[in-house]
Amino acid sequence: MYSLTKPESTIHRLTRKSVRSSLLLGVRASPRLRLDWEKRLGVGDRGGSEEDIMASLWFASLLLFSLFNLTIGRPIYPLPSKQDNKVKQPLQISRPYNIAHRGSNGEIPEETTAAYMRAIEEGADFIETDILASKDGSLICFHDVILDDTTDIAKHKEFADRKRTYEVQGSNMTGYFVVDFTLDELKSLRVKQRYPFRDQQYNGKFSIITFEEFIAIALDANRIVGIYPEIKNPVFINQHVKWPHGKKFEDKFVGLLLKYGYKGAYMSEDWLKQPVFIQSFAPTSLIYISNMTDSPKIFLIDDFTMPTQDTNQSYWEITSDSFLEYIRSYVVGIGPWKDTIVPPENNHLTTPSDLVDRAHAHNLQVHPYTYRNENSFLHFDFHQDPYSEYAYWLNKIGVDGLFTDFTGSLHKYQEWAAASATDEKSAYGLLHKIALMISSYDRE
């Protein structure tokens, strides 16, 4: 059994059943509608014991592998084994996606190897991550543009002079920015829990991982596990990080996905072998990469009053029917903040908006975020019961997937709901047979 106290690159077997559902990709928007929205967005068409012995052997092999990688400039990590997907349990399509938001970060510090491995163990269909770039152009898994809240950067006196103030999405922000550190420097830091009310015992045990290491976790799982990476803060990253030959952050991002075999339209044979959703709050980034990859894309939606990351429009404006008709040429779904679907008032739910119905009418999936077990994140209507929240969103609102910090809880709920439905169907069938027998007896 995998131990959280071992190095985070420990290989361990994962066998939990995965589940999810799907909708078909919509047709393309009309040329006139597309031209109108391209003009608004500013874009155009774009081209001891046995266990101890085995652990020692594993560590020795990893050490040799690391030394080899140092000589050729490759990441110090066992990259994907490319195990034949034909022998793996396939990705199932029977119910909404269980999307592990930054891994199983309700238990383990976010975006770490351990958090992702735990999420897979608990039944995640997709593991989700945020992609940023280091000073030297390496892509890493990290949510914030600053390191202050979820690493031990404050303990590293050698970096005391790195604090900066930059403009991020129209506002000044001060802190230790990811873009001011090389990959080696970032690797020297250790990750900690974001929220003080969550388990702190794993603080300081795990390092920041690269995009390639994240991909390796998914590809080395014993069943097919999808990935759900975000092009994070692309405007800011492109301002501060430069790549050779005029390449952009988005080019580097897509290049790594293609390098490891992620390709194919939604539900295609290639996609089912290595499932991926590419997500972003920046619509122009999703449009920019549309000619680079046919992998399915998800447009993320923040608070309606907020401007998008790359245009002067509000998210309210770009959830109009005309925009949904336009953007469905580039994406297969939207990922809204859940409070934009059902606005709360004094922490009570109000009448749901029509966003889900309108998205479905445009053949767009809906994957809202973020579902958390703690009472401080639950509306009063759910009476401190996360299962009640899952039931509401899956059964009443009818979404197609959920971003959750607690993968295991969502998986257990879906298993329970599926079993209950089966039992109810069986009981109904039995009662129906009894009724027929009684009816037949009465006729005799």
From TrEMBL:
The protein's name is glycerophosphodiester phosphodiesterase
Task: List, in alphabetical order, the Gene Ontology terms for molecular function in this entry.
Answer: glycerophosphodiester phosphodiesterase activity
SUPFAM superfamilies from the xrefs?
A: PLC-like phosphodiesterases (SSF51695)
Alphabetically ordered keywords of this record: Glycerol metabolism, Glycoprotein, Hydrolase, Signal
UniProt keyword Phosphoprotein, yes or no: no
User: Which Pfam families does the record cross-reference, listed alphabetically?
Assistant: GDPD
Q: Could you tell me which residue ranges the GP-PDE domain spans?
A: 96-414
Q: Which PANTHER family match?
A: GLYCEROPHOSPHODIESTER PHOSPHODIESTERASE GDPD5-RELATED, GLYCEROPHOSPHORYL DIESTER PHOSPHODIESTERASE
PROSITE patterns named in the record: GP_PDE
InterPro entries given in the database record: GP_PDE_dom, PLC-like_Pdiesterase_TIM-brl
- Name the chemical reaction catalysed here: a sn-glycero-3-phosphodiester + H2O = an alcohol + sn-glycerol 3-phosphate + H(+)
Q: Which Gene3D superfamilies match?
A: Phosphatidylinositol (PI) phosphodiesterase
Protein EC: 3.1.4.46
A single GO BP: lipid metabolic process
| Biological source species | Musa balbisiana (Banana)
